[in-house]
Amino acid sequence: MSAATTHDAHHDDHHHHGPDPGVLRWVFTTNHKDIGTLYLVFSFLMLLLGGVLALGIRAELWSPGLQFVDPDFFNQLTTMHALIMVFGAIMPATVGFANWMIPMMIGAPDMALPRMNNWSFWLLPFAFALLLATFFMEGGAPAAGWTLYPPLVLQGGANLPFAIFAIHLMGISSVMGSINIIVTILNMRAPGMTLLKMPLFVWTWLITAFLLVAAMPVFAGAVTMLLTDKFFGTSFFSAAGGGDPVLFQHIFWFFGHPEVYIMILPSFGIVSQVLPTFSRKPLFGYESMVYATASIAFLSFIVWAHHMFTVGMPLAGELFFMYTTMLIAVPTGVKVFNWAATMWRGSLTFETPMLYAIAFVILFTIGGFSGLMLAIVPSDFQYHDTYFVVAHFHYVLVTGALFGIFAGVFYWLPKWTGNMYDERLGKWHFWLSTIFVNILFFPQHFLGLAGMPRRIPDYAVQFADWNMVSSIGGFGFGLTQLLFAWIVLKCCRGGKQATSEVWDGSDGLEWTLPSPAPYHTFETPPAVR
Amino acid sequence: MVSTARSAAPSAARANRRLAFRLLVVTAAMFGFGYALVPLYEIVCDITGIGGRTGVVSEAAATTGGVDSTRVVKVQFVATVNSGLRWAFEGPQEPLEIHPGKVYEANFSASNLSRRPVVAQAVPSVTPVGAAAHFNKIECFCFTRQRLEPGETRIMPVRFVVNEEIPRRIGTLTLAYTFFEAEPDARSAARDDAASHGTRTNG
Q1: C-beta atoms surrounding A428 within 10 Å
Q2: Is A110 touching B (CB cutoff 8 A)?
Q3: In this prediction, does ipTM exceed 0.90?
Q4: What are the φ/ψ torsions at residue B115 (nearest 5 degrees)?
Q5: How far apart are CA B87 and CA B79, in angstroms?
Q6: Torsion of Cα atoms, A411 then A416 then A419 then A425, to 10°
Q7: Average pLDDT for consecutive 10-residue bins of chain A (529 residues)?
Q8: Distance (Å, rounded) from C-alpha A316 to C-alpha A194?
Q9: Are A47 and A81 in contact (CB under 8 A)?
Q10: Which domain range does residue A368 map to?
């Protein structure tokens, strides 16, 4: 790395110090901070778009009967909401954090493969243009659920090839992003930054990236089989030709379950950075955190069939998948214990990132517990395809993954912009989000236990009250996110100057850099204790 | 534009490319693994009888074992036609009470209600799961595709034997057939529907 300094001496002849002026900077950039920003902005736009679709769902479910949309369009709303939130909002947001923070946390000047990094991002707008275009096609957008089960998904309109190519592009984007992250972490660490000195966020992303490389191609294969079944006469999933639609469910969930952890592990990492900072104590049980994350990642590949207990499996299969699923509670319990122990007897302060991190620990755990209930085969037969499942995965993905992302944004925003965000507004955003999100999703547990099916635009009258409560929460939570946009915008435009350390208890290489972080950082590797 | 070369010395850049290439190979292998799950699934299903896969035996092999006349197993029949296929399809209405090890014959009947010749394939399934592995067919209309002219009706026999090792706990098993159109020609099917219903076509 000593070459970096000699390179610097004459680089003024060829290069600018800072970013290119003009809009084209964002198109051609290979800078990890620029690309991180692009990912984060893109994911926020997708969050709003997916949120609008969700509000369409909640408006229709405000009261029994069919009010605003016809059932087929309702199914398009649920399907597209899920696809956009999973592949457009949560995943790109975490990749944005990885781009911004990993080089700064391990003392690297940039990502290992900067040009591929640029390409990884710029595939996404095209992928989502393809996906969103299906709304305007004959037969509308995909409406068979984000799980794309055949034969239903093969019976839609013209959308299928567009949705599948969009998924291919998203898959290529995230696999390239992951390869970049793995290479950066394994090859570009500053001297002295051994693997077990890396911040936990870097660890969780390293493991996530391996999950992506292993799971995404399987999903690409599954949708390719759908494509050839529909257009090229193969019979992977068609019983008439000797195929089996249940096979799709197996392949899909072989990808689908690791995908769940792909979405949550980076948030685990963020929370593991935030909690020690505001507890003014090092993370409790660092090594056990690393091993717990790796165990969760491994287990995620052998539990997939718990999504399909009702498909007609032999008892031995159901028992196997039930026990392996419940086993995941062990490493997850280790993590929750460590988070609690990190706070134990710390000198805690409750700035917005800390509030989000604590809410994450509590609310994600609620989602984890309902997951345990779903893991129990006999109970799952009752809960399967009800609103209980909807409540469960929204607790892990909204109050889990998304709250982790919020914690991360408030935590690192002063480092990115050089300004402190408005703490008073941040607290407002936290309390409004937390109250409304619970009004939104907690009643869905009751609805599900009482037997309300998911993905249905109309329902029996006894479900009316809780649905209205849930819809009120939905609109409140949705509108609160406009406040988030305002806080971030306000912080970008000015505010109290942030120090290098930003937070009282901050620890790590990124806090040794000035705020805002310069366009190029760690061109000479830092010394790591 | 920002230089990418500055991020790493040439040897480091080479190491990065090498690792990236290896990960790309892993990606390609996992794409292949997705496809490998297809035959893998077939094998697991054949071994365990998941998915109600039934076995095929010859007449001679079927009768080598003894007949367990002390035991009676009830066999029920289900006949279904997949949506989009305009056939009538029926199986025996009454369950058959059989002794394990003995060969039986049951007659199904199918008629083509549409106005064009149709080729269809029957797909069998046996429940409960533990029973499928012990259910063997000697002769079945599901071994080949069936072609019916418009209005034609055909009696379709199936000769089967339930072997003696079928678990004691299984007192009743169900043999279900579903007919799927084998070479669906979307346009002619739609024309046929329009002709017979006199309504607009969709899907």
Answers
A1: 15
A2: yes
A3: no
A4: -105, 20
A5: 11
A6: -40
A7: 41 57 89 96 97 97 94 96 97 97 96 95 97 93 94 89 96 97 96 95 97 97 95 86 88 96 97 97 96 96 95 88 96 97 96 98 97 96 96 97 98 96 97 98 97 95 96 97 97 93 93 94 88
A8: 43
A9: no
A10: 26-239+249-512
Q: Do B9 and A246 touch (CB under 8 A)?
A: no
- Give the pLDDT of residue B5: 42
Q: What is the pLDDT of residue B184?
A: 57
| CATH classification at residue A452 | 1.20.210.10
A255 CB neighbours in chain B (<8 A) are: 34
Domain-located, residue A182: yes
**Phi/psi of residue A242, nearest 5 degrees:** 95, 5
**Which residues on B lie below 8 Å from A29 (Cβ)?**
1-2
Count of domains forming chain A: 1
| Cβ pair A112:B181 closer than 8 A | no
Residues in contact with A495: Cβ distance below 8 Å, sequence separation at least 6, in sequence order: A417, A419, A420, A421, A422
End-to-end CA distance of chain B: 52
Q: Do A29 and B31 touch (CB under 8 A)?
A: no
Q: Which fold has domain B55-197?
A: Ctag/Cox11 (Pfam 04442) (2.60.370)
**Sheet harboring B55-56: ordered strands across?**
B55-56, B135-140, B153-162, B103-112, B87-90
A156 neighbors A134 (Cβ within 8 angstroms): no
- Is A279 within 8 Å of A339 (Cβ atoms)? no
pLDDT tens-place string over residues B82-134: 877 899 999 998 999 999 888 899 999 999 999 999 998 888 888 887 788 88
The tokens 């995908």 sit on which residue? A259
Give me the pLDDT at residue A510, please: 95
